[in-house]
Design a protein that fits this description.
Strand content of chain B: 15-25%
Mean pLDDT of chain B: 82
Number of helices of chain A: 10
Strand order of the largest sheet of chain A: 6-7-8-3-9-10-12-11
Helix content of chain B: 25-40%
Low-confidence stretches of chain A: 1-22, 360-371
Strand order of the largest sheet of chain B: 6-7-8-3-9-10-12-11
Radius of gyration of chain A: 22 Å
Strand content of chain A: 15-25%
Largest interface: A-B, 57 and 61 residues
Order of helices and strands of chain A: EEEHEEHEHHHHEHEHEEHHEE
Oligomer: heterodimer
Structural class of chain B: alpha/beta
Largest sheet of chain B: 8 strands, mixed
Number of strands of chain A: 12
Number of strands of chain B: 12
Distance between the termini of chain A: 51 Å
Chain lengths: 371, 373
C-alpha cells in the first residue's frame, strides 16, 4: 500500500503525522555506504554516512572532487546505477505530504517516481547537459508537471510562466531553447523546474560553480529568498567552503567517502576542529579583511579502492600520529564545544589546538590514482 | 592622445624590465551579417619580467581573447603588440614557432589540453626538441622540467598517460610543457579554476616560484578576484572588452573605484559575514527588483552590453545620460591607478579626493599611452 495520498491532492493542506522520526526531520540518512564495482576492486565512495536534514534547513556538503559528496546525495535519492551499489544503510523521508516516514532505499519504482520531483527535486551542476536541447523552456517545464500532476495544458502553461516570474526570467523566454539562454538563465530555469511541484527537499549539486561571481551571488540570493517563501529544505553540494559559510545553516565536511565534521556555519568558520576542515579554510584567498597566511593542503586524497587503515586524512595531516592509524572513524561531539551537535571524526585535535609547524613543500607522490 | 598631463605607471613595473607591451589592441568578431562583436576594445598594458599582471573579468569580457592575441593565435583588428621593444608580427608558421619560444600559453582545462593517447614524456619531449635545438640532452632536460614543477620521481611520472594523473598533476605537466620552450612570457588562462580549492593554492605557489626562478613575465587570467589579490602585482579589470580599472592588486581589491569592480568585490563570497549579506541583499533586491535584474540579464550576454557609451551603463547605479552617450577613457586616480568612469567622484569620492591634481572636484585628464620605464 502506498503511503502517498492521491496525486490530485497536492494542493490540499499538509497533514503532519508524527512518526518514529521527529516531525521536523525530513531526511534521515543512516549508515549509508555506496561502492563502485570496478575491475580493480570495489571503490568505497561513501562509507557509513549519517546525516539529518531538518525542515527548512540549508545543509552544505563540502568536499573535494572525488570525496563522494555527489555519490552520497544521489545514493540517498536512488539516482545511482551500476556499477554503483548501495551496500548498507537506510534513508528515511518524512515530508508533509506523506502520512508516515518511508525508506527511500526500499521503494518500488512507482513509489520512487512519485517521490522524485514531488518530494525531492534536484538542480544539477551542468544546466546545459541537464536541459533537453530540442525542447523549449515551456515544453520542458510543462512536461514535468504533466508527469507529476493532473493538470490541464493551459494550467501547466500558466504555471510555467509563473515559475519563470519566480526566478526572474521574462515570460518572453518561454519559447526559447536552452542554447539561446545564458548560463545564469539556464541555471534559473533548472531551479524553476525543480520548484515546479513544490518539493519538500531541493538538492543542489554545484548549481553555481560554472557561473561568474556576480551571477552566482544573484542566484544564491534568489535561492535564499525562494526558500524563505516556499519553505523547502536544501542540501547544497559544493567544493567552495567560503560560499557555504555564508549560505548554509549547517555544514558537513566530506573527505574520502566519510563525513569528518558537522557543525553550524558559525562553528565551522570560527571553531573548526578537524585538521581537514582547517586545511580547507586556509585554502581560499580572502578578498575582504586583512591578508592571511595561506597554507593549502599538500598531497592528494587516498585511493578508495584500498583505503588506508584509520583516519583517511592521515597522509596529508600535519597533526598525524601513530595513533591515527588505529582510530575508528566515528563522529563524536567536539569536547570543548557548547553544542553537542558539533561533531568531528578527529578525537585528538580540538579547535584550540595550535597549528603544527608548516611542512616543507612536498613533491607529488606517485600511485594514488594509477600504479 | 598626444597631449597628456599624466602618465600611469604599472604597479608591476618595479619588479623587472619590460617584456611585452600591448598598445591599443582591439579585436572584432563578425557575428551574423551586419553585426560585429567588439571582443577587445582599445586595450593597453605592459608585462614586466618577474611580475604578475592579473586580468580579471566575467566570462565573455574578452580576457581570453586578449591572451590569445598576445600568444599570437589571434590576429589583431587594430593595435600593436611588442615583445622586448620589437613589434610582433606573426604571419607564417615559422614566425609562430619562433614566437612561441618566447611566449607560452597555459590553458584552463588540463584534461583537454593534454593529448590522451600520449605519455607525459611525449608531451615534454616535443617542445624541448622543437625549441631547444639538436644539441640538447633531451632526457636530462625533460627530467629537469619535471623537477621544476615538482613531479618527482620524474621516471615514474614520465611513462604515465594523462588519465592516470590527478587534475593538479596534469596541470603541473602543462606548466612543465610551457617551460620547455624557456619562455620569457607566460600567459596563464584560468590555470587553477578547474582544480579543487585545496589544490589551487599549491598551484599558485608553484607558479609564483617559477616566476621568481625564471624571471617570467606573467599574465594571470582569472574570474576570481580574490586570488588576484594574493598572486598579482597589478590587477586589470575587464568589462565587455575594455579595461575599466587598473592598479596595484591590494588597492584595487580593497578600495575598488569603478562601479563594476565594486560589484565584483561585493559579489565574492565573504565568510566573515555569515549568512547576513546574502539575506540582506535578498530583501533589498526583492524590493527594487525589476531594474537590478533586468540589468543583470543584459550583462549576461556579452554582446548585449552597451555598444554606445559606457559598456557598464545598463547595470550601473550611477549611470546618467552622459554615460549612455559617451564611453569614458581610463581616468587617472593616482600614479598607478586608473578607472574608466564619468562618476568617479560619486563612485569613489575618497579615492578621487586623494589625488592632488584634481582636488576631488572632477575626474582628471584621460591617460594616454602608458609610460614604459
Amino acid at each position: 500500500m502506498s503511503t502517498y495520498p492521491d496525486q490530485a491532492a497536492t494542493t490540499a493542506s499538509p497533514v503532519i503525522v508524527p512518526g518514529a522520526v521527529p516531525p521536523d526531520t525530513v531526511l534521515e540518512i543512516r549508515d549509508l555506504s555506496v561502492v563502485y564495482r570496478t575491475s580493480g576492486g570495489d571503490v568505497r565512495a561513501v562509507d557509513r554516512v549519517n546525516l539529518d536534514l531538518a525542515a527548512g534547513e540549508v545543509i552544505g556538503l563540502a568536499g573535494e572532487s572525488g570525496s563522494g559528496k555527489s555519490t552520497l546525495v544521489y545514493g540517498a535519492s536512488r539516482l545511482l546505477r551500476a556499477p554503483a551499489l548501495i551496500t548498507s544503510g537506510s534513508v528515511r523521508y518524512s515530508g508533509r505530504r506523506v502520512t508516515e516516514p518511508v525508506d527511500v532505499l526500499t521503494m518500488k519504482p512507482d513509489e520512487l517516481r512519485r517521490l522524485r520531483w514531488r518530494e525531492i527535486a534536484i538542480v544539477f551542476q551542468s544546466a546545459m547537459n541537464a536541459l533537453n536541447p530540442v525542447l523549449n523552456v515551456r515544453d520542458q517545464m510543462t512536461d514535468v508537471m504533466h508527469a507529476h500532476l493532473r493538470i490541464s495544458r493551459d494550467e501547466a502553461r500558466e504555471k510555467a510562466a509563473a515559475l519563470l516570474d519566480l526566478v526572474g526570467i521574462p515570460r518572453s523566454r518561454l519559447r526559447s531553447y536552452p542554447h539561446e539562454l545564458s548560463g545564469g538563465m539556464r541555471q534559473r530555469v533548472m531551479i524553476a523546474m525543480a520548484l515546479a511541484i513544490e518539493p519538500e527537499i531541493v538538492i543542489m549539486d554545484e548549481p553555481t560553480t560554472a557561473l561568474d561571481v556576480v551571477v552566482q551571488r544573484d542566484i544564491l540570493a534568489q535561492i535564499v529568498e525562494l526558500k524563505e517563501r516556499l519553505s523547502f529544505s536544501i542540501l547544497f553540494i559544493t567544493h567552495d567552503l567560503s560560499l557555504l559559510l555564508e549560505l548554509a545553516d549547517r555544514i558537513a565536511v566530506m573527505y574520502a567517502g566519510q563525513l569528518l565534521e558537522i557543525g553550524t556555519a558559525e562553528e565551522i568558520h570560527h571553531e573548526p576542529s578537524h585538521p581537514y576542515t582547517r586545511g580547507l579554510l586556509n585554502s581560499f584567498p580572502s578578498l575582504h579583511g586583512p591578508r592571511r597566511e595561506l597554507a593549502g593542503i599538500p598531497g592528494s586524497p587516498p585511493d578508495l579502492r584500498n583505503p588506508p587503515p584509520g583516519c583517511p586524512f592521515l597522509p596529508r595531516c600535519g597533526f598525524g600520529t601513530a595513533a591515527c592509524r588505529e582510530v575508528d572513524m566515528h563522529l563524536l561531539s567536539v569536547a570543548t564545544s557548547k553544542n553537542p551537535a558539533h561533531v568531528t571524526a578527529c578525537p585528538f585535535v580540538l579547535p584550540e589546538t595550535p597549528a603544527p609547524p608548516k611542512p616543507q613543500a612536498q613533491p607529488e607522490t606517485v600511485g594514488e590514482l594509477g600504479a | 592622445m598626444s597631449e597628456q598631463t599624466h602618465t600611469l605607471t604599472s604597479a608591476a613595473a618595479a619588479r623587472g624590465p619590460l617584456a611585452m607591451q600591448a598598445i591599443s589592441v582591439s579585436k572584432d568578431f563578425r557575428i551574423g551579417r551586419h553585426q560585429t562583436l567588439h571582443a577587445v576594445r582599445d586595450v593597453s598594458f605592459n608585462l614586466y619580467r618577474g611580475a604578475v599582471v592579473a586580468l580579471v573579468g566575467e566570462s565573455g569580457s574578452g580576457k581570453s581573447t586578449a591572451a590569445r592575441m598576445l600568444a599570437g593565435q589571434e590576429r589583431l583588428t587594430s593595435g600593436v603588440i611588442q615583445l622586448d621593444g620589437k613589434r610582433v608580427e606573426v604571419t607564417s608558421r615559422g614566425d609562430f614557432r619562433r614566437y612561441k619560444s618566447h611566449v607560452q600559453l597555459v590553458f584552463q582545462d588540463p584534461f583537454a589540453s593534454l593529448n590522451p593517447v600520449h605519455t607525459v614524456r611525449y608531451h615534454l619531449e616535443r617542445p624541448v626538441k622543437l625549441h631547444q635545438g639538436k644539441d640538447v640532452d633531451v632526457d636530462a632536460e625533460v627530467v629537469a622540467l619535471m623537477e621544476q614543477v615538482r613531479l618527482t620521481p620524474a621516471k615514474q611520472f614520465l611513462v604515465k598517460y594523462p588519465h592516470e594523473l590527478s587534475g593538479g598533476q596534469r596541470q603541473r605537466v602543462s606548466f612543465a610543457r610551457a617551460l620547455a620552450a624557456h619562455p620569457s612570457v607566460l600567459l596563464a588562462d584560468e590555470p587553477v579554476s578547474m582544480l579543487d580549492v585545496s589544490i589551487r593554492l599549491e598551484m599558485l605557489a608553484l607558479l609564483d616560484d617559477l616566476r621568481q626562478r625564471f624571471k617570467l613575465a606573467m599574465l594571470y587570467i582569472t574570474h576570481d578576484i580574490a586570488s588576484a589579490r594574493y598572486f598579482a602585482d597589478e590587477v586589470l579589470v575587464m568589462y565587455a572588452g575594455e579595461i575599466v580599472e587598473r592598479g596595484p592588486a591590494e588597492e584595487v581589491t580593497q578600495h575598488p573605484a569603478h562601479p563594476y569592480t565594486q560589484l565584483l568585490v561585493a559579489s565574492a563570497p565573504d565568510p566573515d559575514n555569515l549568512g547576513s549579506t546574502l539575506r540582506r541583499k535578498t530583501h533589498r533586491s526583492s524590493a527594487a527588483d525589476t531594474s537590478g535584474r533586468a540589468g543583470a540579464e543584459a550583462a549576461q550576454k556579452p554582446g548585449s552590453a552597451a555598444t554606445v557609451g559606457c559598456p557598464f551603463s545598463p547595470r550601473c547605479p550611477f549611470a546618467d545620460d552622459h554615460c549612455y552617450a559617451e564611453d569614458p577613457a581610463l581616468l587617472q586616480i593616482s600614479a598607478t591607478r586608473g578607472a574608466a568612469c564619468w562618476h568617479l567622484d560619486e563612485a569613489a569620492p575618497e579615492l578621487v579626493a586623494k589625488w592632488p591634481d584634481n582636488g576631488g572636484t572632477s575626474p582628471s585628464a584621460p591617460i594616454g599611452t602608458e609610460s614604459t620605464n
